[in-house]
Amino acid sequence: MDPLVSFEDIAVTLAAKQILTGVSLNVAEGEILMLLGRSGSGKTTLLKLVNRLVTPSSGRVVVNGRDVMESEVIGLRRGIGYAIQNVGLMPHMTVAENVGLLPRLQAWKQRDVDARVRELLELVGLAASFHERYPRQLSGGEQQRVGIARALANDPPLLLMDEPFGALDPVTRSQLQQDFAELVKRLKKTVIFVTHDLHEALRIGDRVAFLHAGRVVGVRAAEDFESAQEEPVREYVAAFRDGTSRLKQ
To answer: Is the whole model's pTM more than 0.85, yes or no?
Structure first.
């Protein structure tokens, strides 16, 4: 079976700085692939290539058999769910309005929008009492659940997650990690998930791709990652275990 997403010999240069070099990586349909690395390693840039928030300097990104640069950008983005750390909810809209925004833009009938919003908010564990609240009335974890519901609004086959739980307290983060992993497996979604947290990567992912200085230097099944012997993957695992940050960019 062909991969849902392929990065083919990708290089990215921004403001005369080389961000990514020679990245080739496939993401299978239904897989949760974690992009793991320190700040500045290029993982968010790699993620943003998929929905054309960043364009490659060379190489290509293929989604569902088509080069993203040959796709109409609005249609491409509407077919991909996207969630970020700070959620990006519209503060003047209610929870229901935020989740239903994309279906409304695509001219769904209002009754269908309402039904989809109810379904999604229930799916992410938010009761009907949340529908008319505003983002400022929610906790960080509740806002993130709304963000996940919004990313799922059009039932996209592919989700891009850019450190969505990074700003949450440890207890809330742990619960959301568990709930998210169970949800996307149940819905059979393909996920590319950026994190700098090894524990999160191993808890959520099927495979982990380790980025260092703009290159993918190791790709392993999550259950095998901690036994890696190649550097710098082995050093990253050791640094995580002893609470240090010894890797140099």
So the answer is: yes
